[in-house]
Design brief:
Nucleotidyltransferase, domain 5; alpha/beta; Rossmann fold; 424 residues
Length: 424
C-alpha cells in the first residue's frame, strides 16, 4: 500500500500538465516519481517514462525500487534489457537515461518524469522528450535538487505563474523522511551554502568568486601554537614551485595550522630538511624520551611523480623518516587516490564554518601563503565568463597551500558519515 507524505501528495494532486518540484535531498522525490509512473501507466496502451541523467544511474537507482513498487500490477516479468515493465492494465513503464537522448526518439508517450533534472542535459527535454509528448498531449514532471543557477533554475523561474505549469518547493525536513538528528549531523559536516542547497533546496552560487568564501582572518588567524597533548601532522602538496606543506594538529574536530613550508625551486629532499628544522623547533620544547609521532597526509599522486630523477616524492619522504626513526615515528594517512576537487573543497569549507556557524580551523599568522590562498583562490571562468568546476590557477603561487590543507581535511574528516551522497 503506497502512502505519500502530505507534501508529496500536494504535487501528486496537482492537475497541471507540467509540474516542477524543487526539493532537498532525501525529500522523497524519486519515491514520488515512481508513484506517479504507476498512476500514469494505468490504462491500455499508456506509456510512462522515468528519465534520469544517465542510463547507468537510472538503472542503478530507479530500476530496483520501481520493480518492487509495481510488482503487484505486472502483466509479465519485466524486460531487463530494455528496462521496461508491462502492467496488467495494458500500460507500460520504461526507465531511460538522458545521456543518449538522441536514441530515445520514437513512440509518443503519455507521461515523463525527469528525475535530478538539474544534472541532466537540458537538450534531452527540449529536443527529444517534449516533442514526444505532443501527439498524446502527454504530461511531464521535473524533479531535482538545485545545482546553482543552471537550466533547472531557469525552468523554475520561467514556470512560476505560467499557465499549464505548477511549481513546488520543499526542504528535506518537510519531506519527513530524514530524522532531525541526521539533519543536525549534516549541518555539522557541511558548510552553510552547501547545506542550504542540498537540504533546504535553495539555489546557491557555489562556484563563483572566492572558493573558501567563509574564511575570515579576523576570526580564523591567531597565535595558535603546538599543544603537546596532540600529535603533530604534516600534509603535503607536491607542486614543484612553490612546494607547499603544512604542519598542523588535529585537536578533536578542530584543525590548527601551526606552520607552513613554501619553497621555491626546490625538491622533496629540501622540503624534508625544512620539515625537520621546523618540527624540531615545535617539538623541541617538549620532554621527549621516545620518537615523536607524526601523522602524514598529502597528495596521493605523489607516488607516481618523480620529483627527483630516481625516486617518487613519497619514496623520498619514507626514506627520510627511516633515516630519522629515533626522532620521528611516522604514520601515513594516505588514500588510494585523491578525492574530487569539489569534495575536498566542501570538506575544507565545512571546517572553516559549518551550517551551525561553528568555526573549526585556526591558522597561525606565520602561514602567510595559506592565508593568501584562503582569501584569494577563486573559481575559474572561461573566456566568455562561464563558471567552471575548476580552480583558477593563473597565479602560480596560489592553490598549493590550501590544496595541502584539503588533503588532510578530506582524509581525516570526509563528508559521507552524516551526509547522504547525492543520489537518485
Ligand atoms: N511516502 C513515503 N513512504 C515511505 N517511504 C518513503 C516515502 N517517500 C520517500 N520514502 C523513502 O525515503 C527515502 C528517500 O526517498 P527518495 O525518494 O530516494 O528521496 P530523494 O529522491 O528525494 O533523494 C527512501 O528510502 C524512500 O523509500
Ligand atoms: Mg532521488
Amino acid at each position: 500500500m503506497i502512502k505519500l507524505k502530505p507534501p508529496q501528495m500536494q504535487v501528486f494532486l496537482s492537475p497541471q500538465r507540467f509540474r516542477l518540484l524543487v526539493a532537498g535531498r532525501r525529500f522523497g522525490k524519486t519515491f514520488l516519481a515512481q508513484t506517479e509512473l504507476l498512476r500514469a501507466a494505468k490504462g491500455r496502451g499508456r506509456v510512462a517514462w522515468y528519465v534520469a541523467p544517465s542510463y547507468k544511474q537510472a538503472k542503478r537507482i530507479a530500476w530496483g525500487p520501481l520493480k518492487q513498487l509495481t510488482r503487484p500490477y505486472w502483466a509479465s516479468k519485466p524486460n531487463e534489457t530494455d528496462l521496461r515493465i508491462e502492467l496488467a492494465g495494458g500500460g507500460t513503464i520504461a526507465v531511460r537515461g538522458a545521456d543518449a537522448y538522441d536514441s530515445l526518439r520514437g513512440e509518443g508517450i503519455d507521461f515523463v518524469v525527469l528525475d535530478e533534472y538539474a544534472s541532466m542535459a537540458p537538450a534531452a527535454w527540449h529536443s527529444v522528450l517534449r516533442p514526444m509528448l505532443a501527439d498524446r498531449l502527454g504530461e511531464a514532471l521535473f524533479i531535482g535538487t538545485p545545482q546553482g543557477f543552471n537550466h533547472f533554475y531557469d525552468l523554475y523561474s520561467e514556470a512560476e505563474g505560467r499557465p499549464g505549469w505548477a511549481v513546488f518547493h520543499f526542504t528535506t525536513e518537510q519531506g519527513g523522511n530524514v530524522p532531525q538528528e541526521e539533519l543536525a549531523s549534516a549541518a555539522g559536516e557541511m558548510d552553510e551554502r552547501l547545506y542550504r542547497q542540498e537540504f533546504r533546496a535553495s539555489f546557491e552560487e557555489l562556484r563563483s568568486g572566492r572558493v573558501y568564501w567563509g574564511f575570515d582572518r579576523t576570526l580564523d588567524v591567531s597565535e595558535v601554537e603546538f599543544d603537546p597533548r596532540f600529535e603533530l601532522s604534516w600534509t603535503l602538496d607536491f607542486n614543484v614551485d612553490p612546494a607547499c606543506s603544512l604542519l598542523c594538529q588535529i585537536v578533536h574536530d578542530r584543525i590548527h595550522v601551526l606552520d607552513e613550508i613554501a619553497l621555491s625551486n626546490s625538491n622533496t629532499y629540501e622540503v624534508c630538511k625544512d620539515f625537520f628544522r621546523r618540527a624540531q623547533t615545535i617539538l623541541g620544547s617538549c620532554n621527549k624520551r621516545a620518537a615523536s609521532a607524526i601523522r602524514i597526509f598529502g597528495d596521493a599522486t605523489g607516488d607516481s611523480r618523480k620529483s627527483s630523477a630516481f625516486k617518487t616524492d613519497w619514496e623520498i619522504i619514507r626514506g627520510f623518516f627511516r633515516d630519522h626513526q629515533q626522532i620521528f615515528s611516522p604514520h601515513y594517512s594516505l588514500p588510494g587516490g585523491n578525492p574530487l576537487v569539489a569534495d575536498r573543497i566542501n570538506c575544507v569549507n565545512a571546517k572553516i564554518v559549518n551550517a551551525k556557524g561553528e568555526r573549526r580551523l585556526t591558522v597561525n599568522r606565520r602561514c602567510t601563503q595559506l592565508i593568501k590562498d584562503l582569501e584569494q583562490v577563486c573559481w575559474k571562468t572561461d573566456a566568455s565568463g562561464n563558471k567552471l568546476r575548476e580552480l583558477d590557477s593563473s597565479n602560480p603561487a596560489r592553490t598549493h597551500a590550501s590544496d595541502a590543507l584539503g588533503y588532510l581535511i578530506a582524509q581525516k574528516f570526509p563528508m559521507q558519515r552524516g551526509v547522504p551522497q547525492r543520489e537518485f
